[in-house]
Design a protein that fits this description.
Number of domains: 1
Radius of gyration: 16 Å
Organism: Parahalioglobus pacificus
CATH architecture: 3-Layer(aba) Sandwich
Subunit structure: Forms oligomers.
Order of helices and strands: EEHEEHHEEHEEHH
Structural class: alpha+beta
Keywords: Cytoplasm, DNA-binding, Repeat, Transcription, Transcription regulation
Shape: globular
CATH class: Alpha Beta
CATH topology: Chemotaxis protein chec
CATH superfamily: Transcriptional regulator MraZ domain
Mean pLDDT: 91
Family: Belongs to the MraZ family.
Strand order of the largest sheet: 1-7-8-4-3-5
GO molecular function: DNA-binding transcription factor activity; transcription cis-regulatory region binding
Length: about 160
């Protein structure tokens, strides 16, 4: 995480058979500074990965979600998934966490994982699914790619 408080980078990590994994120090130190290692892990409703939020960031999102109308069927389904899978976890003294089985099952996590920085959050992928997703993104991101208007204003 950089000076601006942004998680970035791609790191390959391992998970043991009990669902324990160690967050690399590059991400662990900011998580400890931001939230004393208190995180919320939930599913990404558009892809087969998990999303790791520092607790204060998740609380902001959760408050916004709670303000949405439950009478809207799409909103209700989205909240049911995102909030239903949301799990409070805490990094232990060695920066490890234990992922519950339902989260591991959703994201098809096995031994080899990839942790991907996404600004204010981290994504956790099964390595094979990450490689597929990365390859798809690279295929459509070539020089002829049609970019959303929001990206056209950026200078990279």
């Amino acid at each position: 995480m950089g000076k601006a408080g942004v998680f970035r980078g791609v790191q390959h990590i391992n998970m043991d058979s009990k669902g324990r994994l160690a967050i690399p120090s590059r991400q662990r130190e900011p998580l400890n500074a931001l939230c004393d290692g208190q995180i919320v892990v939930t599913i990404d409703t558009q892809t087969s990965c998990l999303v790791i939020y520092p607790l204060p960031e998740w609380e902001r999102i959760e408050q916004d979600l709670q303000a949405l109308p439950d009478l809207n069927t799409g909103v209700k389904r989205f909240k049911r998934l995102l909030l239903g899978y949301a799990t409070d976890l805490e990094l232990d003294g060695n920066g490890r966490l234990l992922l519950p089985q339902p989260l591991r099952d959703y994201a098809a996590l096995d031994k080899k994982l990839v942790l991907v920085g996404q600004g204010k959050k981290l994504e956790l992928w099964a390595e094979n699914l990450w490689m597929d997703e990365r390859d798809k993104a690279l295929e459509v991101a070539g020089p002829e790619a049609e970019l959303p208007d929001e990206l056209l204003t950026l200078t990279l």
